[in-house]
């Protein structure tokens, strides 16, 4: 008979035996620190090992429980984030957002008309300038009708784009509002940078000089963002604040049979929107006079950025009573 070699003094793995010697097909570990007699084999207890992908104790079973927790946490976070952005927003107090948008319209149109002789938001004025251009009037500035045409056409394209995207994503979803006002903020930023970097003249237009066609670029950008504003007022269901025009707003305000009532939210919204747009245009004129023309655009961009951030944390719409009962 051959003598079996003694195990290592510090513990280790026993050399493999001949096939059939160990019917359990398990690896045998030696642990001299816990066994009095090192010649007695010690079977490793896999319950001590942390969960993971490594098999222990000679078992071919692979544990995935450690990674499963991480996957569950990651899936839960993504699910929560998805629900957050796909939830409809609560329309309570969204009239405040639209009143701020009316102020932005005043800022933008005050700048656009003072600098380039056209409007970015109030397309009624652009339609009049375009119609006068058919007869070659006014003679100065030259090609004013062309800038008005660019603004009007861009505004129409904007309305089509914003409303179709809103319907595709869900008109009142948080994702829709963040995307809409994020795009508007980016357009204002781009227009401001064009003027800040002198790609477009930072000075008001000289009526006696030839038209600078680069002016059409910021006009188009500002008109496109204006379309997003009025689409937002429609999707939020607050039609008494169109944010870009005062003609119908003033009429609706004055013909309201409850004009002098103590509580009249629609009247209050219309009056606030009128004042906001008026003060916005005054602010644009004041900023142009005491500082640079581009200051109005930076101010408008900051307000739109604040609105975009507000949509990220806006309260979600509550469930309807019939949904809870059902």
Descriptive overview:
Helix 2 runs antiparallel to helix 6, helix 4 runs parallel beside helix 6 and helix 5 packs antiparallel against helix 6. The protein is globular and about 60 Å long. The C terminus is likely disordered. 56% of the residues lie in helices and 0% in strands. The termini are far apart. By secondary structure, the chain is mainly α. The chain contains 10 helices and no strands. It has a domain of 226 residues: Growth Hormone, Chain: A.
Quick summary of this structure?
The chain is an all-alpha fold. It has helices spanning 65-86, 94-116, 123-133, 144-169, 174-196, 216-235, 247-254, 265-290, 295-313, 321-325.
Can you give keywords for this protein?
326 residues; mainly alpha; Growth Hormone, Chain: A; 10 helices; 56% helix; 0% strand; globular; disordered C terminus
Give me the secondary-structure topology:
Elements: H1 65-86, H2 94-116, H3 123-133, H4 144-169, H5 174-196, H6 216-235, H7 247-254, H8 265-290, H9 295-313, H10 321-325
Helix pairs in contact: 2-6, 2-8, 2-9, 3-4, 4-5, 4-6, 5-6, 5-9, 7-8
Principal-axis shape equals: globular
Order of helices and strands: HHHHHHHHHH
CATH second-level architecture of one domain: Up-down Bundle
Low-confidence stretches: 19-23, 45-74, 321-326
**Biggest β-sheet description:** none
Average pLDDT over all residues: 80
Strand content: under 5%
Radius of gyration: 35 Å
| First and last CA, distance | 83 Å
The CATH C-level class name of one domain: Mainly Alpha
Oligomer: single chain
Classify the secondary structure makeup into a structural class.
mainly alpha
Q: Please give the count of helices.
A: 10
Helix content: 55-70%
Find the CATH topology of one domain: Growth Hormone, Chain: A
* Beta strands, count: 0
Keywords: Membrane, Transmembrane, Transmembrane helix
Pfam family, one: DUF1275
Protein name: DUF1275 domain protein
